Amino acid sequence: MINLTFRDKQLNILSQDKDQSNKTLFSFTKKVKNINPAFFYESNRPHYKGKSFFWKSPDDGLVLVGLGITRSFINNSAEERFGQLERVWKKQLGSAMIDNPFETPGTGPLLFGGFSFDPYSIKEELWQPFGDALFYLPKFMLTALNGDCFMTVNLLENKEHEEAARLHAEKEIEELISHPMNENEHHASSSLLYKEEHSVGEWLTSVRDVVNLIKETKVEKVVLSRKMRLVFSNPPAPEEVLQNLNSQQPNSFIFAIESGERCFVGASPERLVKKSGNTIFSASLAGSIGRNKDPEEDLKLGQTLITDEKNLHEHALVVEMIKNALAPHCKSMEVPKHPELLKTPYIQHLYTPVKGTAKSSTSIFQLVEKLHPTPALGGVPTDKALELIREKEMMDRGLYAGPIGWTDFRGNGEFIVAIRSGLMKQDEAYLYAGCGLVADSNPEEELKETSMKFEPMLLAMEGTEE
Ligand SMILES: C=C(O[C@@H]1C=C(C(=O)O)C=C[C@H]1O)C(=O)O
Ligand SMILES: [Mg+2]
Is 419 found in the same domain as 354? Predict the structure, then answer.
């Protein structure tokens, strides 16, 4: 048995400064000239260190850039973290004055943030600034979609100060969008001193133990992950890493969120759930193989993956769980019978998109709570898999593999699974990678699979050109 140390046993630490409780949320959105959101982040983030976020969906191309924090919601209670956040957010919106004539999703007051993978795991100081849920209502937010750009400003003010605060914010917007945004801005190149993989031998032993357990018991799948520590003499800035991810992983969800001096950043191919009106999208992404530069060899690898019993089983368990989790919340659902291939630059996966029509009472937070963790990151059965992960990994995954994303004041939103990611902490970075273990897993192969999954973040952190 292991001793679990809880981050905090207090039930409700959703933060709100006392003197702000009688203030109203004023939010206004205006259309601005067309700007490149990546350059906008790059040129303005240095002035909002510790208080920024970035999001890009490869699917609809939506980009969100948050600068400054009007209110942060941090939750350290393991129980009810989804419901609690939703309640406090709804209360905030209940009295808000919102001036947003645009229907565009992701405009107006919006929460951006992430939930830790497992609030009951051991806690490491590394992840402390992120709690078990950290969400921001940004002060300034750029939304870019289909060639249109919008700026939203969120202010918590006494009613009599609203007018002056708005005028001031209008001026700040002008400054934000007038910074020179230069594509070829030169970065001092970062330099990696060394990298160390966390106890590979012990990890392999854990993999063997878990695979044996799967063979002998009713546990069907457990996802075990491991981490790698990078040490830089000259660490890259988050905006550089993001720029690299933007160019190296154009088909992944790209995200970054800062808390104090730490920044969690990544490029994940895996959607947890998207809600657009009552239409919901989820996906099973599990089962992996490498890529090959030679197109014929690459096709062969894909063919191997899509006919491989072990990978198909790993994948099917995820589809099954998603179907069961969504069924009570959906009027209808479409789930293809067979997976297709999803190729990222370094890895190909088995992929089954799931589409449904949600019952009108369903919120995105409810969907996230029901889905997380899918067996792509946890296992089957979920509770037993989580126990094994705690016992065998003996580390705090923090936000890695947890849901990260946004919801706007209309209830639209999208959450992804924060894999292919890393935490930047001064001159260090911690990368995480995991793999789904089933009865047929070969420990050495699984080790290779996790090595392959470190690769995209390593390249983005090193800034190496392909
Ligand atoms: C756990 C990770 O990836 C997950 C595990 C996969 C697998 O084992 O085949 C594939 C995709 C992801 O759902 C990771 O990238 O860290
Ligand atoms: Mg796998």
Answer: yes
Domain containing residue 199:
191-237+269-462
| CATH number of the structural domain spanning residue 384 | 3.60.120.10
**Cis amide prior to 109 (ω within 30 degrees):** no
Q: What is the DSSP letter of 376?
A: T
- Centre of ligand 2 to C-alpha 203, Å, is 16
Q: How far is the CA of 342 from the centre of ligand 1 (A)?
A: 13
**Same domain assignment for residues 165 and 283:** no
Instruction: Tell me the pTM.
Output: 0.94
* Contact residues of ligand 1, CB 6 A cut-off: 223, 225, 270, 285-288, 314, 349, 376-377, 419-420, 433-436, 453
Complex prediction ipTM: 0.99
Question: Which tokens in the block code for residue 39?
Answer: 């350059």
Residues 207 and 60 placed together within one structural domain of the fold: no
| DSSP structure class, residue 262 | E
Pocket probe mutation, ligand 1, options 288, 301, 431, 437, max atoms within 8 Å of Cβ: 288
Same domain? For 284 and 139 the reply is: no
Pair (329, 364) in one structural domain: yes
**In this structure, are 200 and 170 located in the same domain?**
no
The answer to whether position 58 is within a domain reads yes
Report how far Cα 259 is from the mean position of its chain's Cα atoms. 14
Q: How far is CA 265 from the centre of its chain?
A: 8
**Which residue is closest in CA terms to ligand 1's atom 10?**
286
Query: Domain tally for the chain?
Result: 2
> Could you read off the pLDDT tens digit of each residue along the chain, which spans 466 residues?
333 333 333 333 444 444 556 789 999 999 999 999 999 999 999 999 999 999 999 999 999 999 999 999 998 777 789 999 999 999 999 999 999 999 999 999 999 999 999 999 999 999 999 999 999 999 999 999 999 999 999 999 998 888 999 999 999 999 999 876 665 455 667 799 999 999 999 999 999 999 999 999 999 999 999 999 999 999 999 999 999 999 999 999 999 999 999 999 999 999 999 999 999 999 999 999 999 999 999 999 999 999 999 999 999 999 999 999 999 999 999 999 999 999 999 999 999 999 999 999 899 999 999 999 999 999 999 999 999 999 999 999 999 999 999 999 999 999 999 999 999 999 999 999 999 999 999 999 999 999 999 999 999 998 754 4
Check: CB of residue 27 under 8 Å from CB of residue 108. Answer: yes
Taking the CA of residue 453 as reference, the ligand 1 atom at the shortest distance is 15
Q: How far apart are CA 464 and CA 188, in angstroms?
A: 13
